[in-house]
Amino acid sequence: MNRSILCLALAAALAHAPALASQLDAAGADPQQNVVDFDAMVVTGVAPSAALTFVTDPRQPRQPVPASDGADYLKTIPGFGTIRSGGTNGDPVLRGMFGSRLNLLAGDGALAGACPSRMDNAMSYISPETWDALTVTKGPQTVLWGGGAAAGTVRFERDIPYFPEPGVQVRGSVLAGSNGRNDQVIDFAGGNESFYGRVTANRSDSDDYQDGDGNRVPSAWLKWNADAAIGWTPDADTVIEASFGRGDGEARYAGRGMDGSQFDRTSYGLRFEKKNMQGTLNEVEANLYYNDIDHVMDNYSLRDPDPDGMMPMPMASNVAHRTVGGRAALTWRGHHWDLTGGIDGRASRHSQRRGAGRDAYLAQPWNVDARFRQAGAFAELHWHLSDRHHLIGGARLDRSEAEDRRMHAGGGHGGGAMPMPNPTSGMTRSETLPSAFIRYEQNVPDSNLSWYAGVGHTARMPDYWELFSPDHGPDGSANAFAGVDPERTTQLDLGLNYKGKSIDAWVSVYAGRMRDYILFDYGMHGTTAGNADADIRGGEAGIEWRPAESWKVGGSLAYAWGELADSGQPLPQMTPMEARLTAGYDNRRWSAGALLRVVSGQDRVSKSLGNVVGRDLGPSPGFAVFSLNGGYRFSETVQLTAGIDNLFDRSYSEHLNLAGNSAFGYPADPVRINEPGRTGWVKLNLEF
Asked: 405 — phi, psi (to 5°)?
């Protein structure tokens, strides 16, 4: 699709949207017949729905161009960023924190990628539009969904489709855009008062994009997901559901030495819910899940091997990560309190095989290199001191184990060391990890203000990527398995919210100390993982002003700061300060909007330090990107939206980024990968 022609057509349509709306009303149509009460046509930002909690509908069209993966959609929420490596499957970062500091759940089950360098992080397997709700809790301010979540908890959820009478619900969308982007989504549910069935499926495809200078960036992808569920609903408050899902895909990465030629996912689930019970015991919920990831990386399916690079001949690596787990929780409700308590646990197994030559890995046996187990108990209490005063607190205790099944150490993430006998082969390490928080909330009398103050502590076991991917452990040891300590975070969160007739505003700030922060050091002989204390602080703020009916003007600001406590050296991989300014018109028939994203330069870097995905590449300049969107609601069931991202075709790159790979012609000196130039898209949503 010709990018310029598409963008010019969209610009003309957006510019004439308000005028067309006036013509429609002037034609004598009944205004009441033309009004449909919907949420915002195009999502450009999300405000908190409660203290530290953000809830949004990921099925809504979003700007920039609707997301192809979970990490891309999370960027709509202030405080989130992404470590970029090309067009899709970036790794999410919240408040400068990354990896298992961010608890990522899909359908209340843990989903973990398999690549030692996180090419296929958990959000790579999420298609946002096939989920009904996205809930984010920032900071260590809940214990209900797992421990160790210093940055926060992310939950993609699907609703229970209850049918009091026989019926069918159908949702779907199609998307077309620049660079060959085309997506299709279908969500079908049908049933009666006793049974239901639901199928959700999507396909997303894109070619390589062009940056603002017209240069092609290797970034193409093709991915699909299909999930089905069948449920028994003896009444409106009870459900037993069984589910099954599959998915696969491929993706080119400008910033990696290999591409992802397979992202195979197999998922099974079983859940039970009973709500609104008589008596103090009000709710019972339980679920079991099975997620199996089978991922292939190679340097020949989506590119040609680089004869002058580190892998001059065809090579492939096949990795798999299987996770089985479950959760059970009970909720009691009194006159002035709510208490939720329960248990959760999971076990996972990581395995791999590799080969030199095209598809040679298929003849190799699988080798299990790591096993993990976790079991936890939790309780969280909401005490309503009065209608305006609330006290929320919780505690959990986790027992975590990791087993090293590797025969050899070295030659891991960085590839800088020759394989050698593994001194920790067969070793199991166990940790008991406590987490707790307490938060006070108040609605200020005779005002539209509310505020909260909370302190939380969480401890987490080093994850697979921190124990098994580095070439060395602390003090140059053969590996990181025995030497990297658990990470402990204590953090204070404060916030203020204002909800008025024409203005809503909010601000949240935090400050914390991370004991034994797990840090990667990129040296000449590979990567070394170790511990260091770190201080963190920052915050987010937002405002929305409604100057007149159908009009909204708003903005948000996010800032994250961190440094190593002993040396004062900046903490690496910190997102720069970012502001989003929005303006929108929506008369419930026509809509038009604008988004200005402004990102400051980042000069607080530590070039030798980073995480398992990458390191700081040096200071980065700031940039500003302007985008437009518009839409039209034909009826309650059909809506058309469109957008132009990066309207002025700016050439820019994100601070959190991988260096371009030499196989695609990037220079040896690290160069960040540029983001897409001017991009147009059109999306049609249907709901029956």
From this structure: -110, 10
CA angle 194, 135, 549 (to 5 degrees): 100
Here the tokens at position 688 are: 């029956």
Cα separation of 432 and 459, whole Å? Answer: 9
Q: Which residues contact 22 (CB under 8 A, 6 or more apart)?
A: none
DSSP 642-664: EEEESTT----B-SSBPBPPGGG
One-letter amino acid at 490 equals T
**What 3-state DSSP class applies to 122?**
helix
Q: Which two tokens stand for residue 176?
A: 């077309």
Q: What is the DSSP letter of 467?
A: H
At 227, list the tokens. Answer: 């999930």
Res. 12 pLDDT band, cuts 50 70 90: very low
Task: Give the single-character DSSP code of 335.
Answer: S
pLDDT of residue 410: 59
Q: Which long-range contacts (CB under 8 A, 24 or more apart) does 384-387 make?
A: 384/336, 384/337, 384/338, 385/336, 387/443
Three-state DSSP class for residue 376: strand
**Token reading at 512:** 């914390």
CA 36 to chain centre: 31
Q: How far is CA 236 from CA 232, 282, 283, 285, 286, in A?
A: 10, 14, 13, 15, 17
| Least confident range of 1-10, 294-303, 661-670 | 1-10
Helix axes 3-15, 17-26, angle to 10 degrees: 40
* Chain centre to alpha carbon of residue 585: 29
What b/e readout covers 561-592, taking b as 16+ CB neighbours within 10 angstroms?
bbbbbeeebbbbbbbbbbbbbbbbbbbebbbb
CA–CA dist 453, 414 (Å, integer): 42
Token digits of residue 34: 């033309």
Quote the CA–CA distance of 263 and 127 in Å, as a whole number.
13
Q: Residue 426: which region, alpha, beta or left (left: phi > 0; alpha: psi -120 to 50)?
A: left
Q: Residue 361 in 3-state DSSP?
A: helix
User: What gap in Å lies between CA 251 and CA 510, rounded to an integer?
Assistant: 37
Strand pairing report for 53-56 and 133-138: antiparallel
Alpha-carbon span 32 to 34, nearest angstrom: 5
Burial class from Cβ neighbours inside 10 Å (0-12, 13-18, 19+) for residue 395 reads: middle
Task: Find the mean pLDDT for residues 422-449.
Answer: 95
Backbone φ and ψ of 70, nearest 5°: -65, -40
Distance CA 139, CA 157 (A): 20
Q: Give the chain's mean pLDDT.
A: 91
Structure tokens at 247: 């998915």
Q: What DSSP letter does each residue of 29-90 carry, written as one string? A: --HHHH----S-SSB-----SBTTEEEE-TTS-BSSS--SSHHHHHTTSTTEEEEBSBSS-P
CA distance 123 to 89: 7
DSSP string of 553-601?
EEEEEEEEEEEETTT-PBPSSPPPPEEEEEEEEE-SSEEEEEEEEEE--
Structural tokens at position 150: 């210093």
Q: Is the peptide bond before 64 cis (omega within 30 degrees of 0)?
A: yes
Which residue in 409, 468, 469, 460 sits closest to 613, CA to CA? 469
Average pLDDT over residues 63-83: 90
Find out whether 563 and 570 touch, Cβ atoms under 8 Å: yes
What would the two tokens of residue 41 be? 């046509």
- Calculate ∠ Cα 439-442-448, nearest 5°: 140
pTM score, whole prediction: 0.91
